[in-house]
């Protein structure tokens, strides 16, 4: 179970975090390989699951014994209803999930046999935000994760303002840039990085965020199956991935970020937190789909 933190009322509470990232539906299509432009191909299988970086992070954080609260609107449509039902069935927090008139987004995921995947996303209500969704102003929460996709929101200025206030109040922020980080408004991206305690880019994203890194942030440069490098001030160290059979790499980066953040929230060292992130990422690539429900002690017996 997660670490219990003293509560001012005299009780104990579970380690919590808030995740700024949209909820949508993943539609998987299993293929041998993507055809060349203008050519044909076949779909060998298909399935759907609730997705988005936020739910992948939240499931991992909860699997480790914490409680994650996703910030997202969903549409008042059948897809939105399915997402809400899924979250309630799996005891995922809906504290900051709200319905609005409109459609819920979805992502088409083309999955190849080696686990590689290609995405095409139709955005919806998940790329909306208002301060009213945070009805209790994040009371009692000290840790936050922010996905780069969520900063493609028309209300990104308001999102960053909320996070700046959270940071001023002593909150810890992990920022996971995402492949579309280059499409984020540059000034808002600069402000986001400035208030981040940990930034977790991969090798294609680091070039976009590098100029705004000040040395005050912990930077975890992810290199996929090669592991990665952690930079903290003037020091750095490499980490290696766990070697597992790859089923589907979708959600691996999200799971890594959630594992690392949970470690920090639990008071673990940076190295221990990175190892936890590497472990949760390895568990995820062995699952068909972007996340799964498991207990760490059970998975450790399998690895």
UniProtKB/TrEMBL annotation:
GO molecular function: kinase activity
Span of domain Carbohydrate kinase PfkB: 50-286
One Pfam family hit: PfkB
Keywords: Kinase, Transferase
Superkingdom classification of source: Bacteria
Keyword Transferase tagged: yes
Name of protein: Carbohydrate kinase family protein
Species whose genome carries this gene: Aminipila luticellarii
Upper classification of the organism: Bacteria, Bacillati, Bacillota, Clostridia, Peptostreptococcales
